């Protein structure tokens, strides 16, 4: 469930950012007298679209970032689970000791209760800290993906000169001739794997 929401968040974040950047950085002048190719609409705009959900699901960088995030999430869950389990065992032992009158004095029982309250606060603090780390990691992953896609689309669009490259998630009906997802995905994966090979 969390993995699905992570992928959905990444897809939506990238899609909105792609549209925003391309809208404000693209060539804004209409080429009314120029008939360029089959991806030009009657008003002279050259358009294309990307199925960002498909792009993100098949982009090697996104897969690697997701796998790393999942490993980190599992490690954090295990760390929290261990601490929580230890705390719950201590509470059970304390309650059993209280019921059988195992404390020599009431003061000693109060001290143990207070100690356990401190442990509970530590466990809650750890939960919050680990959740914050995961949120920060997810935000960094989203930004890294966004930067990668946007930077490549700028390079890609220098030669193609599209006026607009849309997110297909917002397009209800579209001509497949305008779909550049496969081409972008192939290029992104090739660039990513080449850069990874140089490391």
User: What is the terminal separation in angstroms?
Assistant: 34 Å
* Oligomer category: single chain
**Percent helix:** over 70%
**Proportion of β residues?**
under 5%
Average predicted confidence as pLDDT: 83
- Helix run count: 5
Poorly predicted runs are: 26-38
Biggest β-sheet strands, sense, barrel? 2 strands, parallel
Tell me, briefly, the overall form. rod-shaped
Classify the secondary structure makeup into a structural class: mainly alpha
Q: How are the strands of the biggest sheet laid out side by side?
A: 1-2
What Rg, in angstroms, do the CA atoms define?
27 Å
Structure description:
With 199 residues, the protein is mainly α. The protein has one domain. The chain is 72% helix and 4% strand. The chain has 5 helices and 2 strands. Strands 1-2 form a two-stranded parallel sheet. About 7% of the residues have low confidence.
């Amino acid at each position: 469930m969390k993995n699905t929401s992570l992928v959905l968040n990444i897809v939506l974040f990238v899609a909105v950012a792609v549209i925003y950047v391309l809208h404000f950085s693209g060539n804004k002048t209409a080429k009314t007298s120029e008939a360029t190719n089959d991806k030009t609409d009657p008003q002279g705009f050259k358009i294309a679209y990307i199925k960002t959900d498909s792009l993100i699901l098949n982009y090697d960088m996104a897969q690697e970032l997701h796998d790393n995030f999942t490993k980190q999430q599992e490690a954090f869950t295990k760390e929290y689970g261990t601490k929580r389990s230890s705390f719950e065992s201590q509470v059970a032992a304390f309650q059993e000791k209280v019921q059988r009158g195992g404390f020599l004095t009431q003061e000693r029982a109060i001290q143990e209760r207070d100690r356990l309250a401190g442990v509970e606060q530590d466990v809650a603090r750890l939960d919050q800290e680990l959740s914050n780390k995961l949120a920060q990691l997810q935000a960094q992953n989203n930004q890294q993906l966004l930067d990668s896609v946007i930077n490549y689309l700028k390079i890609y669009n220098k030669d193609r000169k599209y006026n607009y490259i849309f997110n297909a998630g917002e397009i209800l009906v579209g001509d497949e001739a305008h779909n550049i997802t496969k081409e972008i995905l192939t290029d992104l994966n090739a660039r990513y794997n080449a850069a990874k090979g140089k490391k």
